[in-house]
Specification:
The protein is of the alpha/beta class. It is built from 11 helices and 12 strands. Helix content is about 40%, strand content about 20%.
């Protein structure tokens, strides 16, 4: 069989071949006339379609005339394959419409922990919803993934939205100091200042952490030092509970930290203003699947948790 580009509507011509061969299999004369009537075309149009198919295949597909009309061996083989192709093409719209689109979201740890689980549950309950994959990446790493089209949506924390993207501000970023229960600053009436925080050994995250950078930008010049470097909030809480230092977490408004032996104090006002933003490429921002995910992220990021 030839592999050249077909000079016409291949699927329509294959369907015409199947209709014609069904009439041929019924016996009697007038197969072309009956097939043309079923296809709602003139008999000459049907003959040209069969001639085009034969020329493309470079081998006769039909032999005989009238009641003796029958497919050649090549025509019969083509008909078998044509039936599968035509059937698959007829199912294609439903299969495409029913297949969920996959959306990859990169986000900072706060959003991964506090927002994405609710978003995923919402979408899984919907009859038509994209599949979501989550990648942990904040700040510059998230922007690189977006620009490289490795992810579809990014949720980042910063003083402003990531430049060059379509974006929506989700909420303010609240900073909480995590203190051992016995620490003087843990008392409800204790006045917390940057100087007093800087005098406490710190338990902070790795060098790529934006929370760490934000804290040390303010406390570093006051003499603050990192005693323990940890990976994630759970590890930080363990060290704070043991009385080995103070740590910090970044949270959405209305969210807090409850952990035995640890007192959380809101110290947002001591640090530079910061917010959470959901962002994506401008040319894709209005795609239905992306909009659906963004809307759920916005909804849950702005909702207060139930107490």
């Amino acid at each position: 069989m030839a592999t050249s580009i077909y000079p016409g509507d291949l699927l329509e011509h294959l369907r015409s071949l199947l209709v014609l061969l069904r009439q041929v299999a019924g016996g009697g004369r007038g197969a072309f006339e009956q097939a043309a009537r079923e296809l709602a075309v003139d008999r000459s149009v049907l003959r040209r379609r069969m001639q085009t198919l034969a020329a493309w295949a470079r081998i006769p597909l039909l032999v005989g005339r009238g009641a003796n009309l029958r497919p050649t061996a090549a025509g019969a083989r083509l008909a078998l394959r044509a039936a599968a192709l035509v059937a698959a093409a007829s199912r294609l719209p439903a299969e495409v419409a029913g297949a969920p689109e996959r959306i990859v979201v990169a986000c900072t740890g706060t959003i991964t922990t506090e927002v994405l689980p609710k978003v995923l549950v919402d979408l899984e309950r919907s009859e038509i919803a994209p599949q979501i994959a989550v990648r942990r990446a904040g700040g510059a790493a998230c922007e690189r993934l977006l620009r490289g089209r490795d992810v579809d949506i990014g949720v980042v924390r910063g003083e402003g939205p990531p430049p060059g993207f379509a974006s929506i501000r989700l909420a303010d970023d609240r900073v909480w100091a995590l203190l051992p229960k016995a620490h003087p600053l843990a008392k409800e009436r204790a006045r917390i200042t940057p100087e007093r925080l800087a005098a406490t050994p710190l338990v902070l995250y790795g060098a790529s952490s934006r929370t760490r950078a934000r804290i040390m930008e303010r406390l570093g010049p006051l003499g603050a030092s990192i005693r323990v470097e940890v990976d994630g909030k759970a590890s930080a809480l363990a060290y704070v509970r043991a009385g080995l230092g103070a740590s910090f977490v970044s949270l959405l408004p209305g969210h807090g930290v409850a952990h035995p032996g640890v007192v959380a104090r809101d110290v947002t006002s001591l640090f530079a203003a910061c917010g959470f933003y959901v962002a994506g490429l401008r040319e894709r921002w209005n795609e239905p699947a992306l909009k659906q995910v963004v809307e759920r992220i916005v909804h849950h990021a702005r909702s207060r948790p139930r107490r």
